[in-house]
Amino acid sequence: MSEPIERVAVQVDRLCWTGILLGLAFTMTNVQQFAAAGAPVWSLTWFAAWLLDPMVSLVLLAILRAEQVTARRGVRLGGWVRAAKWFTLGATYVMNTWSAFVAGSAALVVLHSVPPLVVFVAAEAVTDLRDKLGAVAAGDDVPRVPRTSFAEYLAVARKARKSGETVSPAWVRGVTGCSRGLSSKLAAALNGEQ
Length: 194
Fold this sequence. Notes:
The protein is an all-alpha fold and 194 residues long. The protein has helices at residues 2-36, 44-72, 79-103, 106-138, 150-160, 169-176, 180-192. Helix 1 packs antiparallel against helix 2. It is flat, with a radius of gyration of 25 Å. The termini are far apart. The mean pLDDT is 88.
């Protein structure tokens, strides 16, 4: 049973890292253009600008990899590591989107925001995903979110309902905390009881 989970963990790990690498590769040309600031192609400034993104990205990748390995062993890293990670992520975002913000183009802001934001989210998720999948593979107790049944939601809604009250999906969501899709079914069931 643990072998398929371990295979899934490896696949998830590889896919997340591939996404992170592709996101960082996408940002590279935008950061180069930002750093070159219109320098002539093939000039020393133009070449040097190609070094900025890899410098930031390599530090970020080193931090992410170290975070992943230490998290597996239950070792918490210090505040400087977290600060370095967020600084490098923030620097990548700012340099990648600067020209889009200056141009005032919402479409360019979105286009140049998505890859760095995917890297941000994946950077946070990859360690936690690997840690949780490792715990499942090892058979450790992993906290599970209890699922509430339709009947339990219905009982809560019945109890909260006052005489003559209009039952709508929004009202059901407000008193039960259920999902939008389930709230319409619960409202129909309650209204059918009248």
